[in-house]
Design goal:
Elements lengths: L8 E5 L10 H11 L3 E6 L2 H13 L4 E5 L5 H15 L4 E3 L18
Parallel strand pairs: 1-2, 1-4, 2-3
Helix pairs in contact: 1-2
């Protein structure tokens, strides 16, 4: 039986984890892979993504990693382009990390 996300492409930021075990991004990568999505896993550092790659491999998922600081617009633009180059599109975006400031996306300027 195909998973509910079969054929979908998901960008998941914060795909590593601050420490060993489960973090939100790692858990999302594994769960989405279990449901059939292709995963474009994003983090600032490659080391935390190693365990994510292993866990996704256990469930037979397809995963590509990408290094990116999501608070840097140029890096985010490159991240999206890299995902589209690899998988042809983006169906799902999980913004699991970022900076912290008061206000919402409408009130904040891009630099914030």
């Amino acid at each position: 039986m195909a998973g509910r996300l079969e054929g979908k492409v998901a960008i998941i930021t914060g795909a590593g984890c601050v420490g060993p075990g489960w973090g939100n991004g790692r858990a999302e990568c594994v769960r989405f892979a279990e449901e059939g999505a292709s995963i474009f896993a994003v983090d600032m550092s490659p080391e935390p993504m190693a365990e994510t790659l292993e866990r996704v491999a256990v469930v037979g998922g397809e995963i590509e990693t990408h290094l990116c600081d999501v608070t840097n617009k140029a890096q985010v633009d490159a991240m999206v382009e890299a995902c589209i180059t690899r998988f042809g599109r983006v169906d799902i975006l999980i913004n699991n990390v970022g900076g912290s400031a008061r206000g919402g996306p409408v009130e904040m300027d891009e630099e914030t």
